[in-house]
Fold FAD-dependent oxidoreductase.
Amino acid sequence: MTRVLVIGGDAAGMSAAAALRRRLPDAYEVVVLERDAWTSYSACGIPYWVAGDVAEADDLVARSPEQHRKNGIDLRTGTAAVAIDLEAREVETDAGERLAFDVLIVATGAEPLRPDLPGIDGEGVLGVQSLGDGQAVIDALEQKPKNVVVVGSGYVGLEMAEAFVARGIGTTVVEKAPVPLSIIEPSLGEKVAEAMRGRGIELLTDAAVEGFELDDDGHVRGVVVDGETIPADLVVLGLGVRARSDLAAAAGLPTGVKGGIVTDARQRVAGADRVWAAGDCVETRDRTTDLPIHLPLGTHANKQGMVVADDVAATLLGEPNRLTFPGVVQTAITKFCALEISRTGLGEQQAKDAAFDPVVVSIQTSDRAGYMPEPGEMTVLLVADRQTRRLLGVQVVGSENAGLRVDAAATAITAGMTVDDVVMLDLAYAPPFASVWSPIQVAARAAVKALDS
Amino acid sequence: MTRVLVIGGDAAGMSAAAALRRRLPDAYEVVVLERDAWTSYSACGIPYWVAGDVAEADDLVARSPEQHRKNGIDLRTGTAAVAIDLEAREVETDAGERLAFDVLIVATGAEPLRPDLPGIDGEGVLGVQSLGDGQAVIDALEQKPKNVVVVGSGYVGLEMAEAFVARGIGTTVVEKAPVPLSIIEPSLGEKVAEAMRGRGIELLTDAAVEGFELDDDGHVRGVVVDGETIPADLVVLGLGVRARSDLAAAAGLPTGVKGGIVTDARQRVAGADRVWAAGDCVETRDRTTDLPIHLPLGTHANKQGMVVADDVAATLLGEPNRLTFPGVVQTAITKFCALEISRTGLGEQQAKDAAFDPVVVSIQTSDRAGYMPEPGEMTVLLVADRQTRRLLGVQVVGSENAGLRVDAAATAITAGMTVDDVVMLDLAYAPPFASVWSPIQVAARAAVKALDS
């Protein structure tokens, strides 16, 4: 019997496994190893679980282990892979079993960055990457913490801080940069800082965490920031993640940016025979710069899982491959209270790093016609290339109806449109939704003006 | 002195005039004739004025006659052009004046369709195209009408009906088709019908208006629909518009679809020397089919006005032309109460008429992750071409956060993307905004499945 072995039972692994199970005849076995108890869950939903908007972990599970098993997948939860033997074509589990495979799919996800600081392994210093991590935070809330410190102000940090404040817990966010949320330009980050402080969050910027003070039981009681101790019964690390690729690397598979496993556009691992990788554990590429990037997001993991399934099935069944993963344009969106924040494409520094000559403009506009009641404000920042006039990036911060405006920009960037092309796009207009020019086009017109002057 | 003469002082005419005034030296004269008292106003805002959301007509005026005059434009309000003499290069006004021109810009807008029915010229049977029309409706409201009938259920009809209901007036909408809002597919129109009835509007479909009953003073008192009289103190016609191009046609300028003046991509009128036209009075083309279409919308009028200004200035100053108007993809958006309705590209019949072989899919999805509180529903209908797999059209009906989703689709259609391309787009994802797949992509995946089966 031909065995497809998948390591990792979240978005990428399970979307690949499920699609393969549907497409492959019964003579093919699909085995999935998942070290946790959950499958196919939304890690992005953890902050909303912590906030109380989502009742329990199971609500974040798109498809349970039972459902996957009912669909014919040999799913082994609570089972971790500890070694990959590419020569013998076997994977060793933490139960000591050696499982042979014909096809290997590595979907081991990402792990939160835990800098090597004194006390970081203390109790109550938690990451938020898996549902297990989320459960640990929920359990910690049972102890009625008075003070939470969130280290880092990426979108996970931001969302977690909002969740704690919603629960009435004193919340401090510590950020080493001058402004929060480094995925957007500092000028927009200022607006986020303002909103955080307005919501009662203690935001410390330009602040270096030096370590964690633990009590006699080894539980965190404070965070040392620039020599001063901030009281904390609970610490959440929101410092970003790296690919969880130690297992793959130990087997000799190539890794790149932030440990991401290197694959081609079919998600085949470079230099390995019948080994695919997908999701937060892989390196991908930016469609504009063609440079490698590590971009762990569920939306990419699902697409890559789909690509893997297509290519594995094509390989096993001798059919033509149909799908490739074309890369990303770094689109991201989040919400802090009523403030919507989104971005796509390149920021100014990223554009420079990729040898573009960026022109950056920033405009203020309204989310509806100026005469409509209760107009919402938004700021749109746009990055274009001076030489080619290509649209390189768009970032939006604003009220309701602001964030999703980047979708049109993401599509325009993917299509290689210039800012002149964007000005002439036929985007939706009616008084409740925009002034005569869509906010993205108001910014594009400002860019045209800047390029022509 | 070289004179640029503009006929029409709304979006297209004034955006062209204003841009030309900024760009041309003082030796060039910019004269605008506007038959009404207002300039640069938002006709799209009239329903919100009638609803009481907007206090007065002046709020809908983006730039007043005084402001335009201060900027150096010779603006003559209350002055209508009555004849164009292309040979003498003169325009005659209703004051009997003959104005010479070097450059003529025709921006005469559109006029509501008024079918030749008994009683249609009665008092209280109103269109809604200009601010003057809007003022007439506002004045009619002073008479405290008990029953309003809206004839036609395009977006203007819909928005006006909502406005009347908001004022507590009994409102009937009469539509000759089986479902309202013909810009979307009937299956989506059903949802709009439901929402209208849910709001207390009497919606008559498959219903033919045969005429209007007038009282002894010549004021409307009823609408005859299929032999029965529906009481009405006020009737609003929402039957669409045609280009107001009689003046241009009488001068021998070519007209096409719905009377739209025929121009090239620089908005030069075909076959005429130094005559441009822009806005609701022109015919444009669909970017997908390359077929001519009349699509009167402020967003196109503004862009065309900009193109005219660029080309006129280039011509007069001997500089290279920079802008062309590339056409439209028929994007439209509206809102009925909480229901957002939008479309872009081609509908099924339009696709067939353009010799495509359309595959149509329709999906239901949520505006956020399924586990988030208060998810909003939306329906996305997608049209693709079987042979090329190109995305042809997208229509959305749903709650908050639904309507603007078409912007990404409009951009993808403009770029000529296939549904496979759309599936791989990097669109914004976070739990408050979408499930892992954006609604447009959920529909694109359904289309891929339909195309592959």
